[in-house]
Design the sequence.
DNA sequence: TGCAAATAGTACGAATTCGAACTATATAGA
DNA sequence: TCTATATAGTTCGAATTCGTACTATTTGCA
């Protein structure tokens, strides 16, 4: 592949990396003290998918090692945002439940992001995002599948 | 903002986050043992912009705290990929120079990414990327500017 | 049924990130 | 010129990420 084309793909992933970095900072600025993006991701997942998920199930969903999730869940439990109970279907396993405080924390974060989304929407209307999303989704799905083939 | 629209913006940043995670893993799988993405980012920057940059200059370019860069540069120096010399223009400062080994390492990583880019190009031709890039760049620039206004 | 292999989760330690505090040098203004 | 302030970089310690090794339980199959 020639250098010009190579640079194009480099720029694609570079822009994506910067957007990711900035948007994570935005999210974390809107979370209560000590909560970071991975905590929010868990809370959000438990509301969107429904709670009662197992740690391993979430580790796979987020593509992180299970030891990482153990640590994240411990932080959420310490703060009283989730409860971990034994899994009645499998003695090795646990199930993760949201507390009222956990639900409230997630909803507050979503609400606190709203002003930001409004500002972005002023420059990037939902129609624009709807135009961008399918290709991004296709790219995500494609490179995700590539992972099995090329590490 | 209504929930449907909110979900749209959420999905945008979520897709971007996943692509970033996977592409970093791809890069790191192609780097010599112990080198990680931030190391490569520094090497690549020193070639693209030219070496002789100061640590602070790079910390700003990558939007990371200068203490993070101290650590990354120490790793590169240990491995003989860069050399840090005093800055003749400013006694407080240093300048970072690539070694031959550093240049070679960066070039090898680029070469090792080529097969991957080819596979992506089969599904996402350069024209497609050229279509996606301007909007992504515009989004990056916009939220980067937002940072000054909203944290 | 019994036992080897697989699976869920945790403990521990190394590497990375990053804020606070520190040293050394440069700069600006009285 | 002198001194207060700003700036470049490092040190240190806490939090996060993640690989290895471990325990407990389940599953597969002889």
Sequence:
């Amino acid at each position: 592949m020639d250098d010009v084309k190579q640079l194009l793909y480099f720029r694609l992933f570079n822009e994506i990396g910067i957007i990711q970095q900035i948007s994570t900072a935005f999210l974390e600025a809107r979370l209560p003290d000590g909560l970071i993006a991975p905590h929010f991701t868990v809370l959000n997942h438990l509301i969107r998918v429904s709670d009662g998920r197992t740690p391993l199930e979430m580790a796979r969903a987020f593509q992180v090692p299970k030891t990482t999730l153990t640590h994240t869940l411990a932080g959420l439990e310490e703060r009283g945002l989730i409860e971990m109970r034994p899994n009645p279907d499998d003695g090795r396993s646990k199930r993760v439940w949201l507390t009222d405080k956990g639900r409230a924390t997630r909803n507050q974060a979503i609400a606190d992001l709203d002003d930001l989304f409004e500002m972005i929407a002023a420059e990037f209307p939902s129609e624009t995002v709807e135009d961008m999303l399918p290709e991004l989704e296709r790219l995500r799905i494609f490179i995700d599948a590539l992972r099995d083939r090329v590490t």
Q: What stands out?
A: Chain A touches chain B through 55 residues (CB under 8 Å). Residues 34, 36, 38, 64-68, 71-72, 75, 90-93 of chain A lie near DNA strand D (CB under 10 Å from a C1'). The longest strand of chain A covers residues 82-86.
